[in-house]
Design brief:
It is built from 16 helices and 13 strands. It is of the alpha/beta class and about 425 residues long. Helix 1 links the parallel strand 2 and strand 3. The N terminus is likely disordered.
Amino acid sequence: MSRTRRLTLSVAALTLLPTVTGCAFGSGGGTRLTVLANVTDKVAMASVLKVFRAEHPDITVTVTYADTNRLQKNLPRDLEAGEGPDVFTVWPGNGNPASAVVLSGQHFLTDLTLRRFAWNLPEDVASVAGERGRVDIVPASYSAIGAIYAAQTLDEIGGAVPTTYTQVLALCDKAREHGKVLFALGNETPWVTQLISYSLAAGTVYAGQPTFAADMEQRRTSFARSPWKDALGKYLEMNDRRCFGTDPLATTYQDSLDQVASRKAVGIVQVAATIAELKAAAPGLDLTLHALPASDDPQQTRMPAAVSAAYGVNAHTPHPRQAKTFADFLGSAKGQNLYNSRGTTLPAIPNSAFTTDPAVAEVARRQKNGTTVPFMDQTWPNSEVQQTHFRQINALFAGRTTVTDALKAMDRSYRDGQLD
């Protein structure tokens, strides 16, 4: 499969975490551009804005950062009300209310198909950049979900990075013997609930059935009839084995970061961008991201990896030229490299000038050798499947449902597009 997507030109071509204080970048004159970004991308965006400000002094960019839950819930409503920002975070694919396919279908996104960066999108990136062949977003980073370990804390308990699921459980025991937990887990924050099940499903489902997403679409399988039940079963087994903190449902995302930074937890299963936040909180920690094994065969281990951060231009922005200028900068090699230089992610549009951070060396290696799988929700047909997933993981941890019933609920949402 060709790495680069070639475009053919046509004639017509929840309880929410608080928003982080906005930051203004620019000379104070000219056009004022508003940007809404995920709080997990604060470090990456700051690197971009510093250079963009120097190259475009006539554009002042004001950035507001918000939690994932607020973005997914409030952004579509703000856009509907005509109060959306000029440029904003958009999730690739079709997995949630603020995803590219959903927002494009509601006519909230500017078509970026003819921008220069769109000509260089790898095929897997282009496939989640819009619908019907359009490019509705500028992909900024390629990230992964995996186990982030603090080397000093791992050494403190006399452990090593596990390569099998049995070793994971044994490391949970070892961490507990030293008065720690292996993984901090902030399941009070809804979007966090999905990360471990995605990491485990990568191995239990996609390693043996790489066509699972297509099989689901063709109704040749279902969540309840697939090895997703093994993934959720192991998620609960890890909880029973006390791999996590005392009460994950009463632990927020920020609490979980604090546990790693204070070395109460050996690591955390999170997106790669979290490494930057942890480094800011605990500069002395040596952090690396690795796949979370789901079996005892290392050859079957897979890592969820895909476009993570991406941005859309408001179709109704009063500043379309300046907003597209910002999107073009994000899509350029310079913008891609700046965005990913400190955020321990990879450029979504690869280029030879980028140097990979050692913290995510395994991500780059797996991207190259083909042992990654998509972020599952990017291939789901509607945004309700992910929301049901959040709710069902919460119910599993609270003891209010079973694995079978949780997966049946996800199947109903997949089929009917309704929350269960």
